[in-house]
């Protein structure tokens, strides 16, 4: 029996529906629901251990959720991510991700890193190597297109002059942007970034913000990011989801979330029963403004 796939509103790309993930007796994510919309940057924030990475790992197929559904509109139509194996999540569902630590191929050039990301269409065009070796079929054209696309991305991230340098020789901020460009070379509908601003200096942070905005505005991909740097979150997010102890405690615009007493209490490490006190303090401070 085939289950009917959920109809998602036009602007919703991914719906996280009642997501729960347990590790033995520990509930790392507890009945969390939120939407990731097209044309938006959604930030997932929360104190250490709140469950952010676990949500990411469920969306990107590293974990099978204990419960919940993850319908996503891929290039092929709506798919349930929790039903896919991790490699299908990038290929079929068109979800790309980066990690907290940079995972470029350090010995390969910047250009080669962007070509590796296009391995799949190149392999198809090669007729699984034989025709490719002979230069028959669409392989040469596909290869030219792949190089062209890689160059467009190197221009966009300001690294065209360093196309032939090994990725490991690039400054840290450039490596971060190259990693994002590599993810974008797979034509994702959803780009998931785990702490993209970690370790960046202020100039690199501005370059990252500009890149993420251009991905949102020019490529039509939705961006979902985990970020600890609140200045980045407030600056570039359209939508913020806050987790604390595995539960969603707030969901809205950056301003609404920043002023939410539950969020302030979570970051201050205040117990649940003290939230009302924080609420009164926030209201008092707002009235005094
Ligand atoms: N594979 C695992 N096995 C057991 N427990 C896990 C596993 N992964 C995460 N956890 C636990 O789940 C909880 C949530 O962890 P998670 O890494 O998702 O939080 P986080 O919000 O990403 O934290 P941080 O900001 O510190 O990265 C933590 O208590 C963590 O110890």
Automatic annotation (TrEMBL):
ABC transporter domain sequence ranges: 14-270
InterPro entries in alphabetical order: AAA+_ATPase, ABC_AA/LPS_Transport, ABC_transporter-like_ATP-bd, BCA_ABC_TP_C, P-loop_NTPase
Family annotation (Gene3D superfamilies): P-loop containing nucleotide triphosphate hydrolases (3.40.50.300)
Domain of life of the source: Bacteria
GO biological process: D-alanine transmembrane transport; L-alanine transport; L-isoleucine import across plasma membrane; L-valine import across plasma membrane
Pfam families tied to this protein: ABC_tran, BCA_ABC_TP_C
Keyword annotations of the record: Amino-acid transport, ATP-binding, Nucleotide-binding, Transport
GO molecular function: ATP binding; ATP hydrolysis activity; L-isoleucine transmembrane transporter activity; L-phenylalanine transmembrane transporter activity; L-valine transmembrane transporter activity
Coiled-coil annotated residue ranges, if any: none
GO cellular component, one term: plasma membrane
Family according to the record: Belongs to the ABC transporter superfamily.
Protein's name according to its UniProt entry: ABC transporter ATP-binding protein
Organism: Methylopila turkensis
């Amino acid at each position: 029996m085939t289950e009917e796939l959920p109809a998602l509103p036009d602007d919703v790309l991914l719906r996280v529906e009642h997501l729960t993930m347990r590790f033995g007796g520990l509930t790392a994510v507890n009945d969390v629901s939120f939407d990731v919309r097209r044309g938006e940057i959604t930030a997932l924030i929360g104190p250490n251990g709140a469950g952010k990475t676990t949500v990411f790992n469920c969306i990107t197929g590293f974990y099978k959720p204990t419960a919940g559904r993850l319908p996503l509109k891929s290039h092929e139509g709506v798919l349930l991510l929790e039903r896919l194996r991790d490699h299908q999540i990038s290929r079929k569902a068109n979800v790309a991700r980066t990690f907290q630590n940079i995972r470029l191929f350090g010995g390969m050039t910047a250009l080669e890193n962007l070509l590796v990301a296009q391995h799949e269409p190149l392999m198809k065009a090669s007729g699984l190597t034989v025709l490719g070796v002979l230069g028959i079929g669409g392989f040469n054209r596909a290869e030219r297109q792949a190089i062209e696309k890689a160059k467009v991305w190197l221009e966009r991230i300001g690294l065209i002059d360093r196309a032939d340098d090994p990725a490991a020789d690039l400054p840290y901020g450039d490596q971060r942007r190259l990693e994002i460009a590599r993810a974008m070379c797979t034509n994702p509908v959803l780009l998931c970034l785990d702490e993209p601003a970690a370790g960046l200096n202020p100039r690199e942070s501005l370059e990252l913000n500009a890149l993420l905005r251009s991905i949102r505005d020019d490529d039509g991909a939705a961006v979902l990011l985990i970020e600890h740097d609140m200045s980045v979150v407030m600056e570039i997010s359209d939508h913020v989801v806050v987790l604390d102890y595995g539960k969603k405690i707030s969901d809205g615009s950056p301003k609404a979330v920043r002023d939410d007493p539950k969020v302030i209490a979570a970051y201050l490490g205040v117990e649940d029963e003290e939230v009302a006190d924080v609420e009164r303090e926030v209201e008092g401070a707002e009235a005094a403004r």
